[in-house]
Specification:
By secondary structure, the chain is mainly alpha-helical. Helix content is 45%, strand content 8%. It has helices spanning 3-6, 9-19, 37-43, 47-65, 68-73, 91-94, 108-123, 132-157, 172-175, 182-199, 214-231, 235-250, 307-313, 326-329, 337-342, 382-395, 401-412, 426-441, 447-453, 457-460, 480-485, and strands spanning 80-82, 274-278, 294-296, 317-320, 322-324, 343-348, 353-359, 365-367, 370-372, 377-381. The strands form five sheets. It has a two-stranded antiparallel sheet with strand order 1-5. Strands 2-10 form a two-stranded antiparallel ribbon. A hairpin with a 4-residue loop joins strand 6 (343-348) and strand 7.
Length: 496
């Protein structure tokens, strides 16, 4: 693809917001309005049309990632607790008190991303491109995106309506669907990923690493197969597939940055640890992300801060509605560089009294004297890939020490010798891998799904420890709004 078309993100986002109105017209939930036949016939003609459709797909993914992905993927875990500014209703997540009337974000926006991917999959094969490799790259990204979005949905709600064609008419069969079985959804996800991997022309990343690539698609594939291996009884065949995909992805241009905090620094986006991220930057519509509710406003700043803490906080911004929980804070050791890069403890009374803590991993940047929470949302990075290799190896009875110690060596630096991992039993190894994922990937929108995959949610989340008989809580409820608009969709068991 031409560099001027593909890599200047702000330009293509502004363009895409104009052109994609011709492509995607979604009403509430799955009740989609038909696309104008005139617009549809006139739009899908050129390579630029295809690129505009692809950019629009990423724009709508960004809308979902801005706050919702963290709520689906991490908020219900043991990671979070209330902070200084109250709860802003976030306690409904970490207390696991969701219901059909307060169900968290619904799936509306995710289906707009699926619709964009379906449009690309349907129309791009008929569009002439200057290069067949460029056409294949667009199709590969569409297949990967559809797989990724369905993977979000099937882990969040279980069965969901399966839509594989653009919604271009008013037929009730097209606009009102029943939930598909979980097995059917995973079959589509795996099929899409195989298709995507076959279409990507090479292992290269685009500058910025905010487009799907072959290494990122392979990592997603491994994530999917680890899930089905553990949750759907896929067993060793699925673990073997996951490990092969990860070993292939590992050969890409990737490395562990020596300074952990530099992975997340605003001015170091798209660094060599990143496989896939969702790009946020200044002047984009509704671009600030969920992390703005984990920082500090002037209303809650104590007057007797020491100079070092005040300097670390710097320019204030956001609201302290929730923070890293005490349960998680206590698992970090002082010699782990990830601790100070993940959260900052605030003390008063000359350092004697714990006052609270704020998030440091995604604190954004200061623009024009104001803090802007515009960090990229990291979907996959190299340390995550290494820990998935460790997980797959352990599931197959192999030694995960190499990958565990690579991650720990970076984390502990000169103190790494005090934290060497040694393989013991599969159960103990799994416990160590799950804890390493907690420390390494805190606040990156993965912890709830990690706990579900390892079947540890009811053991490790305080609000679930005495509720082991309420297994339905592993899924989110479907909102009352969704149910009222989708008469063929049934509520998830346990939430009626």
């Amino acid at each position: 693809m031409k560099t001027t078309k593909r890599f200047i993100f702000t330009t293509f986002m502004l363009v895409s917001l104009g052109v994609t109105g011709l492509m995607t017209a979604c009403n509430d939930q799955l009740t989609l309005e038909p696309i104008s036949q005139i617009s549809n016939a006139s739009f899908w003609k050129t390579e630029d049309d295809a690129l505009g459709g692809m950019y629009g797909m990423y724009a709508r993914l960004r809308d979902q990632v801005r706050t919702n992905l963290f709520l689906w993927g991490e908020a219900r875990s043991e990671m979070m607790d209330r902070s200084l500014g109250g709860t802003n209703n976030y306690e409904r997540y970490y207390q696991n008190s969701l219901d059909r009337n307060f169900a968290g974000p619904d799936w509306t926006g995710l289906y707009t991303v699926v619709h964009d991917a379906n449009l690309l999959i349907k129309n791009v094969p008929n569009i002439p491109f200057g290069s067949e490799a460029d056409k294949n790259a667009v199709l590969a990204q569409a297949y990967t995106m559809r797989a990724y979005v369905y993977f979000i949905m099937v882990r969040t709600w279980g069965g969901v309506p399966l839509v594989t064609e653009p919604t271009e008419g008013y037929s009730p069969d097209m606009t009102q669907r029943r939930k598909a079985p979980v097995a059917d959804i995973f079959a589509l996800i795996k099929q899409d990923l195989d298709q995507a991997v076959s279409l990507f022309p090479d292992n290269a990343f685009t500058p910025g690493r905010f487009f799907w690539s072959k290494p990122a698609a392979l990592t997603l594939k491994a994530d999917v197969y680890l899930w089905t291996g553990k949750r759907l009884n896929g067993g060793n065949p699925d673990f073997e597939t996951a490990l092969t995909a990860l070993e292939d992805a590992k050969n890409a241009d990737l490395e562990l940055l020596s300074n952990y905090s530099q992975i997340f620094t605003y001015n170091n986006k798209g660094n060599k640890e990143i496989l896939m991220a969702v790009r946020f930057q200044e002047l984009e519509v509704a671009s600030q992300v969920a992390y703005q509710d984990m920082y500090m406003s002037s209303a809650f700043l104590p007057p007797d801060l020491d100079d070092a803490t005040a300097a670390a906080i710097g320019t204030l911004g956001g609201n302290p509605y929730w923070r890293v929980s005490d349960e998680v804070r206590e698992q970090f050791t002082d010699d782990d560089q990830r601790k100070r890069a993940t959260y900052l403890d605030i003390y008063t009374n000359q350092g004697q009294d714990f006052y609270g803590s704020i998030m440091m991993k995604f604190k954004g940047t200061v623009i024009g004297g104001a803090r802007q929470f515009l960090d990229d949302f990291i979907v996959y990075r190299y340390a995550d890939l290494l820990l998935m290799i460790a997980e797959a190896k352990n599931a197959l009875g192999q030694d995960p020490s190499e990958e565990m110690n690579l991650v720990r060596s970076r984390a502990y630096g000169e103190h790494a010798a005090d934290h060497v991992f040694t393989s013991t039993t599969p159960e103990a190894n799994d416990d160590a891998i799950l804890k390493e994922r907690l420390l390494e990937l805190a606040l990156e929108g993965k912890r709830w799904w990690d706990l579900v995959r390892f079947d540890q949610a009811f053991e490790r989340v305080p609000s679930l420890r005495d509720r082991a008989d309420e297994r339905y809580l592993l899924l989110f409820p479907i909102s009352e709004t969704t149910l009222s608009l989708e008469p063929n969709v049934e509520q998830n068991d346990g939430y009626n």
